[in-house]
Amino acid sequence: MSKDIRIKKGLEIKLKGTAEKTLFDLPRTDMYAIKPTDFHGIIPKLTIRVGDKVKAGDILFYSKKNESIKFAATVSGEINAITRGAKRRILDISIKADAKDTFKDFGEKDPNKLDRKTIKKHLIEAGCFPYFKQRPYDVIADPNDLPKAIFISSFSTAPLAIDESFAMKDMQEAFQTGVNTITKLTNGKVHLSVDGRETNFFDKIENVEIHRVFGKHPAGNVGVQIAKIDPINQGERVWVINPQDVAIIGRLFLTGHYDTTRVIAIAGSEVENPRYFKTKQGVRIEKLHNQCVFSSAQEMRIINGDVLSGKWVRKNNFLGFYNTLISVIPEGNHYTFFGWMPFTQNKLLSMSRTFFSWLTPNKEYDLDTNMNGEPRAMVMTNEMEKVFPMDIYPMQLLKATLVSDIEKMEKLGIYEVAPEDFALIDFVSSSKVEAQTIIREGLDLMIKEVG
Amino acid sequence: MQFLNNIMEKYRPHFKKGGKFEKYGPAWFGIDTFLFTPNHTTKSGAHIRDGIDLKRVMIIVVFALVPATFFGVWNIGFQHFSQLGIEKTFLELLWYGTVRFVPMVIISYGVGLGIEFAYAVFRGHAVNEGYLVSGLLIPLIMPIDLPLWMLTLSVIFAVVIGKEAFGGTGMNILNPALVARAFAFFSYAGSMSGDKVWVADSGITDGVSGETILGTLAAGKETSLSVFDMFMGYMPGSIGETSVLMILIGAAFLLITGMASWRIMLATIIGGAFTGLLFNLWGLNVLMNFPWWQHLMVGGFIFGAIFMATDPVTAAQTIKGKWIYGFLIGVIAILVRVFNGAYPEGMMMAILLMNVFAPTIDHYVLEGNIKRREKRKLKNLTI
C-alpha cells in the first residue's frame, strides 16, 4: 500500500542536454580510483601500498576514527598511486586495472536467513558500509548504530538527473535482494519513495513502505522526503542510501562478489550526444569524456554529480563514489554590460519574474557558471522559503549557523537538514548566499560540539 | 560594449587585492559592477545561479516608483499654478515641477551615495545597492518646500544613524527613508507640517492655501475634495504620495515581478480599512466620520503600504509575521490619525513603530516552530 506525498514548493530547473535513453557499454579502462575526499570527515588509514595486487572487494583503507568503516577496491589490479594534496591529505588511490576482474569471494548468501549481526559483519568486510549515510550530519553511518528507519529515494528531481528506473532495469533482482538485506539493519521501516508521475519496477518492490512523491525539485531529495514521512528528532539517527548502491549490496549477497557496476549518464549543454554508460565506480572521467562529442571550443566545467550540489573536477579525475551523473556545462567567465537591467538577459533562468523567462516555463536553458551578481547581505525575504519544502525557517537557520549559535541551530532544526537540501537556496538567492557551504560548516560544528 | 570593458579591464588590477589602489577597491567596483556584471564564477555550492541579483531587485523597485514620481513632479506644478489661478500647459507644469524636484533628487542621491561609498572604502566592503531605492524614496515623501539644507541633514542622519550604524544594508532596524522623514519632522516641524509647505512657494505667495486633506480634517473641517481627485491625486501632499492610481500601477509592477510582499500590502490595507470602519461606527468627530475607504486614499497611507512597509529588511521576515506586521501598521496608522491632532499623518509613525516590533513578531512565529519541533520530539520519546 503506497502513500501519496505532494510537495508544492520548489523549482524545476530545465537544462539543455538531458541524457538520451540509450545505454552504451563503456569498454574497460586502465585506471580506476577511490577518493577519500568523497567521504566527508573520514581520515583514511591505509592497509595497502603502491604496487600491491588487489582483488575487487579487498580493503584499501579504513576510517581512523571508526575501524568498522572500511573501503574496498572496486576493480582488481595493481595499486598505481596514492595521490596526496596539501598537508599530505590523500586525494585518491588509483588502481591499474587487470583486463578482467578477479573478485574476492564472500560467498552467495540469502539475507532473509541471516541475522542482523552476521549481515552487518558481512557488509563491513566487503566495504559496503560507506554506502549508508546518516542523517543528521550527512556523513557515513556508524555500523554500531541502530537507525530509526532507512530511506531510499528511487528518483532524483535535480537538473539533468538520471532516470534510475531506466538505469537500473537490469538490476531489479539485485535491488530487491539489497532491500531485503537492509530491512535487517533497522527495527523500524525501510521507506522507498517513487516518482508519482510514472509507474516502474520500484512500485513492485517488496519489504518496504512505498511513498509516491509528486512535485518539483527538491521533491526527489531524500531529506525532503524524510521531513514529510518521519521527521528526524534530536538524538535520533536515520540512514539513507542511493538505489544503485542498494543493488551493489544486493549483488554482494546474490553472487558473493563486490561488484560496483554502475549505470551513469553524461549530460549537460556542452555534450552533443548526452547518454547513459555502463561502467564501474571510480572510472577515470577522461575515458567517458573521449566517448562524447562536445559542442564548442569554449571552456567547460565538469561536475561529479548534478549542477546544484556536485563537485567540480578536472578531466583526469575519477567518477565519485556516490555519483551516477557527470554534468558538463560552460564556464561563465565573462562580463555582462548592464547585466542588472530588468527584462534583459532573458537567456538566464530565474525564479523571480524580473526576466521574461517566466513566460516560457518549458524552455530548456543553457546556463553557465557565472554568479550573475555579487554576494551581498541578505535582503530579500521569503525567497528561500519558496524552494524549501520543510517545516524549517531556512534564512533564520542560516543566520544562526553563520554566528555558530549552537542552541538556536538545534532549535531551528539543524538535525533535519543536509547541505544538498540547501542547493536550491544557493541557486535562487539574490544575495548569492553560499547556503550549502554554511550548512556543511554548521553540521561539522555540531559533530565537534555535540557528536 | 567590449570597448568600454577593455578600458575598465586596464584599470581593474590596480583596485584588486594587492593592487596599488586596493583601498579604494570598494568604490571602484561599486561603479564597475554597475556597468558590468562581473565575471565571477561559482566556486563552491551550486554551480549555476539564478540570474537575479540585488541590483536588479533594487532597480525594479525604482521602476515601480516611476509613475508616482512622474505624477508627483507634474502635481508640483499643477498645485502651484492652479492655486494662483494661472493656466499653464501640461509641459509647463511638468517643467516647473522638474526644476523644483531635481535638486532634491540630486542632493538625496549625491549625499547618500557619497556616504555609502565612503563607508564602503572605510570598512572595506562592497557598496550595497539598498540606497538606490532610499535615495528616490526620501524626496518623494518630503514636502516640496523643504529647504535643501534640511534635506541634506535628514539624508546624512538617515544613512549614518539609520543604516550604517547598524552595519549597512540588510542590517538596519528602521526604514532609512522614514528615518530621514522622521528626523526632519521632529527637527523642523514648521517645514514638515501645517498648511504652508505642501504647495510650492505657498509660504511666500499670498493667496495660496496648501492644506492637506488630513490637515483640514484634523482642524475639524470637512474636506471639499471629490473622491475622484483623491484617487487621481489632484491634491497637495508629499511629492510622491498623492496619486493612488500611480502608486497602484507601481504596486502592480512590484507584484507581477514578485519583488515585494503582497501579504504586507494586503494586510496593511485590511488593517487600515478595519480600523477606519470601527471609527465610522463610533463617529465622534470629522476624522472618525471620514469614510474608511477614503482614509485609505488620502495622506501617505497607500504609498506607505506599497513602498515603505514592504521593505524586506525592516519588515517582519516570516510569512505569518508579515500578516501581523502589515495589519498592525494599518491599525496604528489610522489610530494616530484620529487620536493625535498634532500628527495628522500616522503612516510614518505606524511603520517606524512596527519596524521596531518586527523582530519581536518574528521571534514569536519562530517560537511556534520551535515548540512544534519539541512537541514532536517528546511525542516520539513517549511511544
Structure description:
The complex is a heterodimer of chains A (451) and B (383). Chain A is α/β, with parallel strands linked by helices. Chain A is built from 10 helices and 21 strands. Chain A has helices at 116-125, 164-167, 172-182, 222-229, 243-255, 285-289, 394-402, 406-412, 423-428, 435-449, and strands at 3-7, 20-25, 31-34, 44-46, 53-54, 59-63, 70-72, 77-84, 90-97, 133-135, 139-140, 150-153, 190-195, 209-215, 238-240, 261-267, 275-280, 300-304, 311-313, 325-330, 336-337. In chain A, strand 10 (133-135) and strand 11 (139-140) form a beta hairpin. In chain A, helix 3 crosses helix 5 (243-255) and helix 7 (394-402) packs antiparallel against helix 8 (406-412). The radius of gyration of chain A is 22 Å and the shape is globular. The two termini of chain A are 37 Å apart. The mean pLDDT of chain A is 92. With 383 residues, chain B is mainly alpha-helical. Chain B has one domain: Ammonium transporter fold, CATH 1.10.3430. In chain B, helix 6 (148-163) crosses helix 7. Chain B starts with a helix and ends with a helix. The model of chain B has no long low-confidence stretch (mean pLDDT 90). Classes of the chains: A alpha/beta (451), B mainly alpha (383). The interface between A and B is large, with 77 and 60 residues. Strand 21 of chain A pairs antiparallel with strand 1 of chain B.
Topology:
The complex is a heterodimer of chains A (451) and B (383).
Chain A: E1 3-7, E2 20-25, E3 31-34, E4 44-46, E5 53-54, E6 59-63, E7 70-72, E8 77-84, E9 90-97, H1 116-125, E10 133-135, E11 139-140, E12 150-153, H2 164-167, H3 172-182, E13 190-195, E14 209-215, H4 222-229, E15 238-240, H5 243-255, E16 261-267, E17 275-280, H6 285-289, E18 300-304, E19 311-313, E20 325-330, E21 336-337, H7 394-402, H8 406-412, H9 423-428, H10 435-449
Parallel strand pairs in A: 1-14, 2-17, 12-13, 12-15, 13-14, 16-20
Antiparallel strand pairs in A: 3-9, 4-6, 5-8, 6-7, 8-9, 10-11, 10-15, 16-17, 18-19, 18-20
Helix pairs in contact in A: 3-5, 7-8
Chain B: H1 2-15, H2 25-35, E1 36-37, H3 54-84, H4 90-123, H5 131-140, H6 148-163, H7 176-187, H8 189-192, H9 213-218, H10 227-232, H11 244-257, H12 262-282, H13 286-289, H14 292-295, H15 301-308, H16 319-339, H17 347-382
